[in-house]
Structure formats: C-alpha cells, structure tokens
Amino acid sequence: MNRKILFSFRRSSLKTKWALTSAVVIFISFAIICSVLYWSMHTWLLSQEHQSVNRTMDDLQVFFESQGSGMTIDEIRSNRGLMNSIIDKNQTVRILNKDGIEILRINDTINQIPEIKKQVPSQGYIVEKEKLEGIDCFVATSKLQMSPFLGYIQLTHPLDSFHSLMNYLLMAMCILGLGALIISFYIGHFLANFLLRPLHELRLEMLNVAEEGFGTPILMEYSYEDEIGDLLQVYRKMMAELEQTFLLQQQFVQDASHELRTPIQVVEGHLSLIKRWGKDDPAILQESLETSLTEIKRMKDLVEEMLELARGEGVAQDSHCNVEETIREIVEEQLHLYPSVKIEIVKNHFTNVYAAISQRALGQIVRNLLQNAIRYSNQDDKIFVCLTIEGKNCKIEVEDHGIGIAESDLPYIFERFYRVDQARSREEGGTGLGLSIVHMLVNKYGGKIFVSSKLGEGTKFQITFPLENNQI
Ligand code: ADP
Predict the structure, then answer these.
(1) Which regions form coiled coils (predicted)?
(2) Does residue 421's CB lie within 6 angstroms of at least one atom of ligand 1?
(3) pTM for this prediction
C-alpha cells in the first residue's frame, strides 16, 4: 500500500508534488502546534478547577474552625447563608454523618452521593477524581467534629464545563486543521502553478525545437535573473552552440562531398576513356592513368586533411618541442620535394627555444604555410622563415613575395574550403583546408595568428606561441 502511494506520488507532476508536500508540511506543523496548545490548555484549566476545589474547602475549614468543635446541626443550618456564599455555584457541599448519611446539603448540582473514602485524614482533606452520574468530578472530603458526633464535609465539583470547553477547543482545532489542510493545498497548488509556469513554458519551447528543429521562433519571455532565468540562458546558449555546430557540420559535409565529387568524376571519365579507346591507344592509356593517379592523390590528401581537422577538435595535450629543430626539419622536407625553391631561416637571438606545442602540430602548421608560400609565388622568389622571441612568446613568421591576397579575401582565408582562386588552388594541389588546419592547431595550443598581404607583393603569416613554462 505504502509502496503504491510512494510510486504514484513519484509519478505525479511536479505541481501536484509541490502542492501535496506543502499541504502535508503545513498540516503537520499545524497539528503539532495545536496538540501542544491543547495539552497546555487542558493542564492549566484542570489545575484551575482543582484550585477552585481547594479554595472552597480551605474556606469551609476556616469557617468550621472559627465556629468551634462542638457545633450542632441546627447551628450549621442557621449558617447556611454564609456557607452558600463560600461555595461556587456549580459545587455541591454535603454534611454527612459517620455512616455517610446526608444531614445537610448546599446546592444540588450532582445528586449521587460519593462513597466516603477510608483514607480521609483527620486534619485537612483529600481530593479525588470520580465519575458520578456519568460526569467526571473532583470530590473533596474532610472530617468534621460536630456535637454530638463525628461527620464529614464532602464537596462535589463537576468537571462538565471544563470538558465541554475542552471538547469545543478540540472541535475548533480540528475544523481549523481541516481548513488549513485545504487552504494550504490550494495555496501550494497556486504557488506551484505560478512558480513552475516558466518551467512549463521552457518545456514547451524545448518540445517545439524537438518537433520543428533549430531556428524555431523563441516563444518564452522571461527576464528575471533567478535560477529559471539562468537555466533558460544556459539552454539558449547551448542551443545556439548546437545549432552553430550543426550548421558547420552540414556545411562541412556539403563542401567535402562537393570537393570529392570533382576528382571522382575526373577518374570516372578517364576510366571510361580507357575502357573505350585506351586499350588500343597507349598514349591515351598513359595520360588517363596519370591524370587518374593525380586525382586519386588529391582525394587522398583531401581525406587526410579532413581527418586532421576532425582529430583537431580533441583536447590539447601538455606537450612541448624545440621550435628551431622542428622548423628546420620541415624546411628540409619541402626543399627535398621542391628543389628549385629557396627558403631562408632568419633567427633573432633564437637558440634552444621550446614552445608549448607538440612537434607534430608545429610541423603541420609550418608545412601548410610553406606549401602555400611555395604554391602562390614564383620559384625565384625567396621565402623567409623568421624566428623571434617576444616577451613570453616565440614568434614564427613565414613570408613570401608571391601573388598576395586581396584585402576583401583576407577575412575568409581561414574558413574551410575557401579558396581565392579556385582553379589555381586546384591546379597547385590545394584542398582549401590548409589554413583551416593551421588556424585550428594555433587556437588549440593557445597561440595567435595574423596575416598581412598585398596583392602582387606577397604575404606574411605571423604566429605566436607561449614559451614552455620553465623558459619564461
Ligand atoms: P589551399 O589548399 O587552397 O591552399 P588554404 O586553406 O591553404 O587552401 O588557403 C586558402 C586560400 O588562401 C588559398 O586558396 C589561397 O587563395 C589563399 N592563400 C593562402 N596562402 C597564400 C599565400 N601565401 N599567398 C597567396 N594566397 C594564399
């Protein structure tokens, strides 16, 4: 049963949970306060009733002591008026003989005569709680020396008004408790509705995005800087980033498939040519095979570069490398590939410099920049690689005196697949990904890249990297 309740509570909406929890909490607090109040009132009022009994008995004893011990029944009767003024309206006082037979009665609130207790003291009185005629009463008994016999004074104090007051109080508390339960449930419900409305709207917005996709209009307007406002901001930021990534990926897939389509078409064309004519014509066969091989190499380069970019999105490792050594290796590699090219390394107080970047990444950056410098300049134009220390950074510059880049193209050259001159880049074996890779690697290792270029005069790429910690 308990499990069932817990299960259905867990499955109910946040609003219901909130309303129920607040109702229960308020009700329990109310019930505790009421119980404490009820029991304090009960004790206090009962002690008041007890005190009233004590007061009357004390007054009666004083009265009888003042009359002397040999008082006769008639003398007592003649003092009835005085005794009446001592006794409260709801109390009954009886004078009994030693056998418990009533001799005199003042007031008549309870008819039943209580039994005389054996343990009545010779001095003072005893007070006990008894049920007479179905009513709880305090019964006080004391001994009374009269002439000519020993008797008893017996006071009966019914507690009916005390009980009806307590019952009334209990009833009022129960009604109030029930009212508090209902009111607190409604207040909880209202509060939950009011406070959870933004969450509900956020959910609707999320559902809308899930159904309609990115770019759906924003439905929710919430300008408070509370937790929900925070959540909304985080959600919108996350969605904007996701949308951006999604669009970039879409763009990348489109560009990549477009780039791959051209070499595939070329290879396909040449293979058909070989199939139709090439078998009998060695010249066509030779040319088609060479072109196909070139295109396949282009595809291979493209795929490798795309993989490099995809790999680059990973987390940077804590790495370092000797800058000069790495650059010399790459320069030699390029000179080996293009023997007619002239590359000069210029150093400004640059010995044994270590930068906080992996050797592979620095090699890739310099290789891409050098390949571009070679591609987009004449063979006679010298390419310079300058190495400088600048404060806590090392600066690497790759400068050529080739065709340069127009100012209007400069902001786009780091974008994937962007080429200023599509035909020339393709002809030179470019993929349009080289500078994107450079940009990604530089960012990954906390470096900076600048480019300055003038059409027809040449281009200079400047890269700065933080030096390795122990060199600073
Ligand atoms: P690509 O593979 O086409 O060279 P990159 O991303 O390396 O692709 O370069 C993007 C474009 O920037 C190139 O197509 C080229 O037009 C231009 N570019 C890059 N480097 C140079 C340079 N040193 N001189 C002139 N143009 C350059």
Answers:
(1) none
(2) yes
(3) 0.54
